[in-house]
Amino acid sequence: MATPWKLPDVGEGDVVGLVSDTEGDGRVSFVGVARVVARGGLRDQLERLLRHRAEGVDRDEGKFADILCIIDDHGSKPALPSFPLPAPAKPLMPPPESEAPAKEDAADEAAEAVAELTVEDKGEPLTASEVSTLLSAALMQTLALLSPSQLPLPSSQLYSAHILPNRPAYIPPERRDDVVIARSEWKKLAKWMKELNKDGIIKTKETKGEVVVTSFDPAHPAIQAHRPFKTIAEDDTKAAKKAAREAATAEVAGTTVNKRGARELAVEEMWKPTGSGVAFWEACGFDHPANALKPAFDAYVTKHGLVGRDFRTITIDEPLAAALGKSMSPGDKVNRDEILRRLRNGVGWSVSVGGVVKKGNLQPVTMCVKTRQGRKQVTLVSGLEGFGVDIDEFADELRRLCAGSASVQPLSGASPKLNLKEVLVQGNQTKLVSEALVARGIPKRWIKDEGKKK
Predict the structure, then answer these.
(1) Which of 132, 203, 360, 407 lies at a 20 to 30 A Cα distance from 68?
(2) What are 375-425's pLDDT values in tens digits?
(3) Same domain, 303 and 348
(4) Tens digits of per-residue pLDDT, 189-241?
């Protein structure tokens, strides 16, 4: 505080850059980033310091800022570029007359120095300190949005259902699994909760060996200074909605463009709640494409705090129990995969192929090779009706492609009432048949080669 006119008037909660005059020549180097935590910001802290000095009081003013990161704080310490410290646009106080004005180009030189700084991701794992900082940010995000009526909550449930989903979305996807309590400075959730209780952010009590969060202080400076950010949960929800939206809007005359740029039939599985499951799916939002069923379920159990400590176990509530069937009761703890399997089996399915919606599950086009009359092989193709393929026309096409005979016959083993047919082609022609089907726009994932059969 010896030269307050060189310091900017920053408020509590502001993010600031840190510089160091390592050579004592007035030139400084950037060394890191911090968030101001001093009550009232730098101006109030300066006023308190001056008042205490005038009163002859020697008092430690406490922590001014929380360090967010230090440049190159690992391994060897390279020399950092230096530059003249530019005068702040809004200093704490006017400079004395004896203080020479800063050079006009000081700000430009500082900006150039900042532009030359680079941040390289060398693949180092997150440190325990960095993990702790990210979890703390997720906690502040949680408490800033959490309703006091949702408490009390077991600390494990607060952690799994609220803190983890509220981790910042700017964490790279490949690093998100590292941002967990076990890799933090606390190591144990109970230790972290007790520390937060001591700081006055939350209030806890211990019940049957587990820490329970009973309340929190929304007026705490750490919560008040929090700036909202995009969370991992929001990122996942946005990605799921984008996928569903693209699937719905990318169709052009019932087709989509695959990764190779070729047109193919747009095939979309859809589901709709039925029977006792309607109440549960109404709470989630329904009539989703198949790939949105799991995100809808995940969002529901997270919102209602049903996720267990290990993330694999779900505590059943009343709407979910009704959707799962009579064998389930509210309060039961069931494996997540088993619940998803039952939910998929408990909804009504339909499928859109090329814009035409049909009830029931779609079966793939199947191919198999059978041996008849000694060593003579034939290729059988079935399931073409589901994709709107004219079977007689397709048989004619295979005659030309295979330079051999191809015929149409009733599908073996199917009821005559269904009027299902299959194409029989001489020889092992699975490669040519597959290419012909893809050329007609049938996606490869819907073509099944069953190999050779007797």
Answers:
(1) 203
(2) 788 999 999 888 888 899 999 999 988 888 899 999 988 888 888 999 999
(3) yes
(4) 999 999 999 999 999 999 888 899 999 999 999 899 888 999 999 988 888 87
The whole-angstrom distance between residue 264's C-alpha and the CA centroid of its chain comes to 29
- SS3 state at 362: coil
Contact 182, 246 (CB under 8 A): no
94 is a domain residue: no
CB 94 within 8 A of CB 78: no
d(CA 296, CA 236): 11
CA 376 from chain centre, in angstroms, equals 54
Rounded Cα distance between 329 and 274, Å, is: 19
Tell me the β-bridge partners of 268.
352
- The rounded distance, in Å, linking the Cα atoms of 54 and 73 is 39
- Whether 1 is in a domain gets the answer no
What average pLDDT score do residues 290-295 get?
66
pTM of model > 0.70: no
Cis peptide before 152 (omega within 30 of 0): yes
pLDDT band for 249, please (50, 70, 90 cuts). Answer: low
Q: Where are the alpha helices (DSSP H) in 254-402?
A: 278-284, 293-303, 318-324, 336-345, 391-402
Nearest-5° angle of CA 52, CA 54, CA 55?
Answer: 65
- What is the C-alpha to C-alpha distance for residues 175 and 125, in angstroms, rounded to an integer? 8
Which residue is it, tokens 């609220």?
A: 162
Asked if 49 and 61 touch (Cβ cutoff 8 Å), the reply is yes
Report d(CA 372, CA 218) in Å as an integer.
Answer: 79
Report the CATH number at residue 182: 1.10.10
How far apart are alpha carbons 153 and 307 in whole angstroms?
12
The confidence score (pLDDT) of residue 328 equals: 81
Specify the CATH number for the domain of residue 324: 1.10.245
Which string of b and e fits 73-103 if b means at least 16 CB within 10 Å? Answer: eeeeeeebebbbbbbeeeebeeeeeeeeeee
